[in-house]
Design brief:
This protein is an alpha/beta fold. It has one domain (3-266): Nucleoside phosphorylase domain (Rossmann fold), CATH 3.40.50.1580. It is 32% helix and 24% strand. The protein has helices spanning 3-15, 81-84, 91-99, 156-169, 189-198, 208-217, 241-266, and strands spanning 22-25, 38-43, 61-67, 70-75, 104-113, 123-130, 173-180, 202-204, 220-230. A five-stranded mixed barrel has the order 5-8-7-6-9, surrounded by four helices. A hairpin with a 2-residue loop joins strand 3 (61-67) and strand 4 (70-75). The structure holds hypoxanthine. Residues 110-112, 181, 186-187, 203-205, 228-229, 231, 239, 244 line the site of hypoxanthine (HPA). Hypoxanthine binds at residues 110-112, 181, 186-187, 203-205, 228-229, 231, 239, 244.
């Protein structure tokens, strides 16, 4: 049995066999929703190979159960490339999600904004992304499946449903291109100017590897950023992880409303 099949069996022994429809990955300071799932919470520490989530502001638990009538698996924490140097740090978690029956994945993150019209507290759904890091979680994968097409990687149907959910909730949901910066240092103002010229609207240290892995595994995926700051050089405000964690709740409440409505209507 593969490691992901073994872990899925271990999880099912605690949660029952009903298949999960959606996976949700929660970004920095956005972990609250994991506690809202009616079901079972499993510590990552009990799931060998799951990330230890060594980043403050993340909750290293997998919550499996029902949210707004949909059967979900919520990842309270994620592994980032910058923690280990491994671009495929989330691969096992996503393989387990797939083995639990999920077909769709919603990824969330905290991000810096490159657009004055989306200030801190805004939500921005990813219309597409730029892999500014040059890294790829599929490097080393031997099968031809590694040549994953990335056109419409951000699933048009899920995005339309999230747009509808935001509208129904009266929440502004901007859309833009997210650039993945490896971190853990923040960007320089010159890098932000470069990303702007390249077409980036938001910048962050996650999500892109997960979107690539999701497409590799055949999961449909969409992502939403909670804007926590203006990107480097764009405001007087100092950029820090403390600031990210402090600002995330501003957008998190709106994000939760959108996700709940989406799951109720489309889940
Ligand atoms: N840059 C990168 N990652 C981030 C930022 C940022 O400005 N804000 C929150 N996560």
């Amino acid at each position: 049995m593969s490691r992901s099949a073994e872990l899925a069996a271990l999880i099912r022994a605690r949660t029952g066999d009903a298949p999960v429809s959606h996976g949700l990955i929660l970004g920095s300071g956005l972990g609250h929703i994991a506690g809202e799932v009616e079901g079972v919470q499993i510590d990552y520490a009990d799931l060998p190979g799951f990330p230890h989530a060594g980043v403050s502001g993340h909750t290293p638990k997998l919550a499996i159960g029902t949210l707004e009538g949909a059967r979900v698996a919520v990842f309270g924490g994620r592994a980032h490339y910058y923690e280990s140097g491994k671009g495929d740090a989330m691969r096992l978690s996503l393989e387990v999600l797939k083995a639990l029956g999920a077909e769709k994945l919603i990824v969330t993150n905290a991000a810096g904004s490159l657009r004055p019209e989306t200030p801190p507290g805004s939500l921005m759904m990813l219309s597409d992304h730029i892999n500014f890091s040059g890294l790829n979680p599929l490097i080393g994968e031997a099968s031809d499946a590694r040549f994953v097409p990335m056109t419409d990687a951000h699933d048009p149907a899920i995005r339309a449903a999230l747009r509808d959910a935001a509208k129904a909730e009266g929440v502004d949901l901007a859309e833009g291109v997210y650039a993945w910066y490896s971190g853990p240092s923040f960007e320089t103002p010159a890098e932000i100017r470069a990303i702007r010229i390249l077409g980036g609207d938001a910048v962050g240290m996650s999500t892109v590897p997960e979107v690539i892995l999701a497409r590799f595994l055949g999961l449909k995926v969409a992502a939403i950023s909670v804007i926590t700051n203006m990107a480097a050089g764009m405001s007087e405000e100092k950029i820090s992880h403390e600031h990210t964690k402090a600002m995330a709740p501003l957008g998190a409440a709106k994000l939760e409303r959108v996700l709940r409505r989406y799951l109720r209507d489309a889940g």
